[in-house]
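Tutorial, part two.
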Amino acid sequence: MMRRWRLSIGMFVLALFLGITSLVAGNTGTAVILFLVFAVLAALVSPRAFPKSVTDARAKQLSAADGRAIVYWRPGCPFCMRLRASLGRDARRLHWVDIWADPEGAASVRAVADGNETVPTVIAAGTAMVNPDPSKVRELVAL
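Running the prediction step on this input gives:
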């Protein structure tokens, strides 16, 4: 579980280090800017920046009932962040599975991605898209 937060914690520690180092050097403005930039980056790469994840089994159950797509992702993945950002509020309309928190989700991704854990992987209506163009996923949400 800690692995999910490693990048976010590292970015925040870097924010503190750079901020304090610049502050000690007498550069108050630079210290504040560096701290804020890296603190915001820490928030963006954290698991909290994504909709609440469900287990693979629950996502498949919900998807079968409501027809919404399943998005497999992992914290710190720049392609997942790009997809999440491009979806905006519509991201909540999809079922998100964190493959680092759910081994069955990781197995589902490996099954459709030639044995790799390539994310984001989107499964909609039985069709898998590995690292899809965000515009295609937006079209799925619009349906």
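The mean pLDDT is 89. In part three we will examine how such features are distributed along the chain.
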